[in-house]
Write a structure and sequence with these properties.
The longest helix has 17 residues. The mean pLDDT is 97. The protein is 53% helix and 17% strand. Strands 1-2-3-4-5-6-7-8 form an 8-stranded parallel beta barrel, surrounded by 8 helices. Helix 1 packs parallel to helix 3. The protein is built from 11 helices and 8 strands. It binds SN-glycerol-3-phosphate. The site of SN-glycerol-3-phosphate has 10 residues, from strand 6 and helix 7.
Length: 236
C-alpha cells in the first residue's frame, strides 16, 4: 500500500519524504485554507514547491468550480504546471449532478484524474468505468485514482460499512481487470483508522501528518529505549 501525505505543509512533506513513507501528496481547498495559502498565485506557487520536492510522485490538486466548462479549463491549466499533477474532481457537483462526463473527457485528453468525495460502492465503480472509458483509445495508460472517504462514511454509516465499501470496490476492480484505476483510502483521521483501513486492499492511503506521527508513539517503546540506555551506561 502506498502512502500519500494529505497536506500541503512543506515541512511535513519533507519530513515524511526523509522517513521514506511518502509516495505522493494530496491537497484540497480545505488544506490550503487551513495552512493560510490563498489566491491563485499563492496556490500555484505552493503546488510548484511541493511538485519539485516530490519529483515524479503524484500530487493531487482539486478543481475549485462545479461548472463543467470551468472544471475542464482549470484542469488543463493545473495539469500543465508540472508532470506529476493529478486533477481531483468530485464525482458529482453539490446538487448531485454527475461530473463523470468531465472526468471521461479529461482522461481522453491525457489529464490524470483523482475522482474524489466517493461515499459508496456504486459511485466507486461508476467513476472507475468513466476513467476506463476515457482511457480506451490512449496508448499511455497511466494509473488514475478514485478517492473513497473512509472517515466520512464511518461518521454516517459506521466503520464496518466504510471497510466493506473499500474492500468490495477493490475486489470488483481486480475481478473486472480495471488495472489503471487505483483506490485512495481518504478521510483518515487517526492511527486506528490507518491500521483498520490498511486491511481493505486499497492501493493507496492518504494520511494527514498528525496521524502518521502519532502512529509511532508507544509508551512501552519509549520506556524500552530509556531502560536500554540506562543499562548501556552501566555496562560500559
Ligand atoms: O484527501 C481529502 C480527504 O482525505 C479529506 O478528508 O474528511 O478529513 O476532510 P476529511
Amino acid at each position: 500500500m502506498k502512502i500519500f501525505i494529505d497536506s500541503d505543509n512543506i515541512e511535513e512533506i519533507k519530513k515524511y519524504l526523509s522517513w521514506g513513507v511518502c509516495d505522493g501528496v494530496t491537497t484540497n481547498p480545505t488544506t490550503f485554507f487551513r495552512s493560510g495559502v490563498s489566491g491563485a498565485e499563492g496556490i500555484k506557487n505552493r503546488v510548484l514547491e511541493i511538485s519539485k520536492l516530490i519529483g515524479s510522485q503524484p500530487l493531487s490538486v482539486e478543481v475549485t468550480s462545479e461548472i463543467p466548462e470551468e472544471i475542464i479549463k482549470q484542469a488543463k491549466e493545473y495539469s500543465g504546471w508540472a508532470n506529476n499533477i493529478v486533477i481531483k474532481i468530485p464525482v458529482t457537483d453539490s446538487k448531485g449532478n454527475s461530473l463523470l462526463g468531465v472526468v471521461k473527457k479529461l482522461v481522453q485528453e491525457g489529464v490524470v484524474v483523482n475522482v474524489t468525495l466517493i461515499m459508496n460502492f456504486n459511485q466507486a465503480i461508476l467513476a472507475a468505468k468513466s476513467i476506463s472509458s476515457g482511457l480506451e483509445k490512449l496508448n499511455d495508460k497511466k494509473a488514475h485514482f478514485i478517492s473513497i472517504f473512509a472517515g466520512r462514511i464511518t461518521e454516517e454509516q459506521g466503520v464496518e460499512r466504510a471497510f466493506q465499501v473499500i474492500k468490495e470496490a477493490r475486489l470488483w476492480l481486480d475481478f473486472h481487470k480495471f488495472n489503471n484505476v487505483e483506490i485512495i483510502i481518504a478521510s483518515i483521521r487517526n492511527p486506528e483508522n490507518i491500521e483498520y483501513f490498511s486491511k481493505t486492499g486499497g492501493h493507496v492511503m492518504t494520511i494527514p501528518p498528525e496521524a502518521i506521527s502519532k502512529s509511532l508513539l508507544a509508551a512501552r517503546t519509549k520506556e524500552g529505549v530509556a531502560k536500554f540506555m540506562e543499562d548501556a551506561k552501566k555496562s560500559i
